[in-house]
Write a structure and sequence with these properties.
The protein is mostly beta strands and 164 residues long. The chain has one helix and 16 strands. It has a domain of 114 residues: YVTN repeat-like/Quinoprotein amine dehydrogenase (Methylamine Dehydrogenase, Chain H), CATH 2.130.10. The termini are far apart.
Length: 164
């Protein structure tokens, strides 16, 4: 069945792509409003980031929380799942871009990442490529980008961000 997922408030809804009708609704997935959402590579899990910086992983079929990742200090503005490397990249109003390891369902790991991409501004968006290039842009449109070797003085090696 072809479906897609949306979030509003603290709820997540799965929709039938062909009919446009809701299939499932998972109520109160988070304690705070959901700000960002993405799926894993197999579309069996979804990840939500909330207004308090909390990031959780849920089963797509039943909505059950599977694990919680290292939280941000503020609203999670963006989540991206890197299919090839089983990494979850998060950006937040706290000016941090974090790379979370999703290789092991039982263990939660935050790999070393850039603490701040734009001095004095918040990380609003993030992009991640299989080559481990990372780019961010702040609310005041200052831009920062770099490859996996160096971003604002923070070393990011391929094995840190890609689990290899």
């Amino acid at each position: 069945m072809d479906s897609f997922i949306t979030a509003a408030g603290r709820n997540v809804r799965i929709w039938d792509s062909k009919t446009g009708q809701p299939i499932k609704t998972y109520s109160d997935v988070t304690e705070e409003p959901i700000i960002s959402l993405c799926l894993d590579d197999r579309q069996r899990k979804f990840f939500v980031g909330d207004a308090n910086g909390r990031i959780t992983c849920h089963n797509y079929l039943n909505g059950v929380e599977m694990k919680e990742f290292e939280s941000h200090d503020s609203e999670v503005t963006c989540l991206i799942y890197v299919d090839e490397d089983k990494c979850l990249v998060s950006a937040s109003w706290d000016r941090a871009v974090c790379i979370h390891d999703d290789m092991d369902n039982d263990e939660v790991a935050l790999v070393p990442s850039a603490a701040s991409l734009a001095s004095g501004a918040s990380a609003r968006v993030v992009a991640f490529a299989h080559s481990c290039a990372l780019a961010g842009a702040s609310v005041d449109w200052q831009k920062a980008r770099g490859d996996a070797k160096r971003i604002k003085g923070v070393c990011l090696r391929r094995e840190w961000c890609c689990g290899r």
